[in-house]
Amino acid sequence: MKYELPALPYAYGALEPWIDARTMEIHHTKHHQTYVDKLNAALEKHPEIADRPLEELLKDIDGVPGDIRTAVMNHGGGHANHSFFWPIMAATAVKEGGGAEAAADGGPGGEIGKALEKTFGSFAQFKEQFSKTAAEIFGSGWAWLVRAEDGTLAVTATANQDSPLMRREKPVLGLDVWEHAYYLKHQSDRKAYIADWWHVVNWPEVEKHL
Ligand code: MN3
User: Fold this and answer.
1) Mind giving me the DSSP string for 115-145?
2) pLDDT tens digit string along 144-155?
3) Span from the CA of 147 to the centroid of ligand 1 (angstroms)
């Protein structure tokens, strides 16, 4: 089985003004495509595992043959992370029609809103903790809201393209803080990118991952 670049569920300019069209296009057609291509190239060397779902390969990364383990971690993780990332964002107009966005602080209602309040005390406290975690990642990586194996929700970070699945955690919400995700518009101001990103979180989609 060959992996393919999934289509974006919206136009490149749909997340303007928060995330610019050029960044989205390069991020999708160049960066994500490269992860797909290099994952396929790695798996070609081991056809015996090529049909196992990517999620399983990441959960059992130690079971991946040593000569392609790093490639599967980096490019398989990259493909999984980005495939997860695109749909959990949406244009404001779509989001307003989606029903789950509510509170004046931009917090979601619904099951996701309740779960965040229960775990973090309030949406504002969750948002602060997630934003801080994302801002403090040294170098390239991702901030996550994950569901641990015991069912609890937590904010975590991963380096490079490591997937939470490698730690047996299920991604619920994720934010790419590699510079390629924001450098054209926000330059080195990662905090401004994080602040803008909250405007395009697609809460109805996030809730599906709870
Ligand atoms: Mn990226």
Assistant:
1) HHHHHHSSHHHHHHHHHHHHHH--SSEEEEE
2) 999 999 999 999
3) 22
